[in-house]
Automatic annotation (TrEMBL):
InterPro entries: AAA+_ATPase, ABC_transporter-like_ATP-bd, ABC_transporter-like_CS, P-loop_NTPase
GO MF annotations, alphabetized: ATP binding; ATP hydrolysis activity
Lineage summary: Bacteria, Bacillati, Bacillota, Bacilli, Bacillales
Parts of the chain that traverse the membrane: none
Nucleotide-binding found in the keyword field: yes
Zinc-finger as UniProt keyword: no
Name of the featured protein: ABC-2 type transport system ATP-binding protein
Domain ABC transporter stretches: 2-229
Gene source species: Pseudogracilibacillus auburnensis
Keywords from the named record: ATP-binding, Nucleotide-binding
Amino acid sequence: MIKVDNFEQAFHKKVILKNINFEIQEGEIVGLLGPSGSGKTTLIKALIGLRKSTGGEVSVLGERQPSLKQMKQIGYMAQADALYEELTAKANLAYFGRLYGLKGKRLHERIDTCLRFVNLDQEAKKPVHAYSGGMKRRLSLAIALIHRPKLIFLDEPTVGIDPALKRVFWDEFEHLRNEGMTFLISTHVMDEAERCDRILLIRNGTLIDGGTPKELIQQYGSIEQAFLKVGE
């Protein structure tokens, strides 16, 4: 699903990411774990085609990035919510669903399903400007899932979400993974990292380690210790 070979990203001659190499297979939940400023968001933007690499190659769903050919099979939730705040949640989902080619009965079914999933079905007719920050995050996740993509990138998706709803989200992520959907999720939350199939540890723009949660716990003693290690 994803193949990254000797990836490098620089801005104005300053190298942000270097020597990045990894692969992600279909039906995996892979966590991207590292301190703030380590390059996680820059890497995700390169993977979805918003950044052109300054070195190496990035291939997503068989297409070298940047490319728009696979966009209808990719979902993306950014750290910053990109919503039309004068519209309702339902209208936002309808707009983005149509951009992905959904229409008619299928569009309405996906809107209802995604609103229920993020627990916004009772708030669907409120304008988004009346939403709390957490509600906006939930709507952003619903939009990322509206077209049921093969591959989804989630950049700190549960910030501002209450613990009970986080568990619901992760249960659904695992359900979708079991149906073949692939996830790359950046997170600082240790219990979320432990629910990933694999974790990639990134520090100062370099991928310094990786493995299953069990492997990292054996090596470092805990996921938290692994996180602290990459923050040194």
